[in-house]
């Protein structure tokens, strides 16, 4: 019972924070292996700002949203924020997480697809990173949604490949442009782990031209990734995101308020 109450508290807090414009994101770059100064895009990392100013990362509450079935609405909110930021930053390119729960069936993915369709002029500047809280290969609407998003001009990344529900079946069953490998596979200096990484990169390269290794924190790991054949890296070594969000949403207007187009709200740590 206490576990359920905690679920309700966390989900309620996130929902209220979205209404009050206290959900935002920080950015972490994805850099090329051969030229680390070259940035492919920057991933939006979710942040929740408490009323007292404390900041929570999305890792602290995303599992509660997934468990309660509310992650799809959070994802749509984050994608909406990404479009606002892109509109204010014409040369920017972002990546935004999309839970596989969004494509569970037509009723859940149609709202997201409509949002993507309405903003298709920015499609070339937004990468949709699919995270598998559900086995993607078993979702009947997955290929249809991904094909539709790609036809609008969006690039699709399969996130954290090789861990959780993300399997070779997922990799081979849906068309993707980017594969992101979890930091687990850099092996933390172990030769066995790095050898396995080489094979995973080879498999990912068979289906996507861009292979990113996450969680790079040392130059030794960067060198191992280069030897494995990955094209890009992401991690604290090259890009350390701020805890405080660099961009936040707008508070929901009161019922009688006149609706206006949200302005740009760039924040600074």
What does it look like?
The chain has 269 residues and is α/β, with parallel strands linked by helices. Helices cover 36% and strands 21% of the residues. The chain contains eight helices and ten strands. The chain has an eight-stranded mixed beta barrel with strand order 1-2-4-5-6-7-8-9, surrounded by four helices. α1 packs across α2, α3 packs parallel to α4 and α7 packs across α8. The longest helix is centred in the first third of the chain and has 18 residues. It is globular, with a radius of gyration of 19 Å. 42% of the residues are buried. About 2% of the residues have low confidence.
Through-space gap between termini: 38 Å
Uncertain parts: 257-262
Tell me the strand order in the biggest sheet. Answer: 1-2-4-5-6-7-8-9
Query: What's the β-strand tally?
Result: 10
Which whole number gives the mean pLDDT? 86
Radius of gyration: 19 Å
The portion of residues forming beta strands comes to: 15-25%
Taken in chain order, the helices and strands follow as HEEEHHEHEHEHEHEHEE
Helix content: 25-40%
* Main beta sheet: 8 strands, mixed, barrel
How does the overall form come out from the CA principal axes? globular
Based on secondary structure, the structural category is: alpha/beta
Number of helices: 8
